[in-house]
Amino acid sequence: MQDQPNYDSILNELHKKYDDINQDTETHLEGLLHSKPITYWDYIHTDALLSLQIQRTTLPDEMVFIGYHQINELIFKMILWEIQQVAENEDLNTVFFENKLMRVSRYFDMLSTSFNIMREGMDVAQYNKFRHTLTPASGFQSAQYRLIEFASTELINLIDYRFRKTIDRNTPFEHALEHLYWQAAGKDYNTGEKSTLLINFEKRYKEEFITFMKVYNTKNLWSRFKELPEADQKNEDLVKAMRHYDYTVNVSWVMAHYNAAKHYILGEDGDGEATGGSDWQKYMHPKYQKRIFFPELWSPEELDNWGKDV
User: Fold this and answer.
1) Residue 303 φ then ψ, to 5°
2) How far is the C-alpha of 287 from the C-alpha of 244, rounded, in Å?
3) Residue range 26-51, pLDDT digits in tens
4) pLDDT tens per residue, range 195-212
5) How far is CA 16 from CA 9, 11, 239, in A?
6) How many whole angstroms separate alpha carbon 164 and alpha carbon 157?
7) Domains and CATH numbers, the chain
8) In whole angstroms, what separates CA 162 from the centre of its chain?
9) Who is most buried in 23, 80, 118, 190, counting CB within 10 A?
């Protein structure tokens, strides 16, 4: 008779696991007798995922547009997941920090190159028909992307340049929110009146944003970097990873998005207007807004020329 496997060590570990949370091990093991084996489609929830691409028009290439943006939002979720691990790490070191930054950068590298799907993957005439059914919605309203910004840097680096001298760490978060750089894309420059685009966005996400801003005020990527010992802040690999992430997000990815929009909106059949009504060229191009997460890691010359060479 062949020797039977000995499961004593595993059973002891299971018993400890359930005992630690005041659960009965036998009850949980008995439950396994009646559970169904997992399948790929159940684990990934394939059917639910594939049911979310709902077109507003009969134009075939709208499916490309919807699917592409949903993929972006899934990637944004993965990025936030990685940043959260840095934010909450109680024993942060340069190796862990760099590893997470490069993971996030690879996600943004993928997002940057994927804009060819948008640029070359849709018929221009179709896009300029179905895009009008999206008004006043806009990619501007990606809440997860705003959360990535909040989680990456101190709020002052996201404030509109016109108001930075009037805002500091003692400024109420709600006031800071009103003066973030992207607010300019949703307001009349002369009157300050908010567009429907911005009104709808804030109605849905304002309270969530303020809560998130408070939470990440002291544990965003830049704040966590500054908590490291001085020697670690000079670690060449970590500084390189910080700079790569900053440039990838605020120049490479932004310009890939900008060029895709330019291809359609300023093309022969485009009308030059964003669906949300924003001054999208000045809002998106990095040389105007100079979105920079870690300005202290760049030279004065690099800061002055930010986005001008693309």
Assistant:
1) -65, -40
2) 17
3) 999 999 999 999 999 999 999 999 99
4) 999 999 999 999 999 999
5) 11, 9, 42
6) 8
7) 61-304 (1.20.58)
8) 25
9) 118
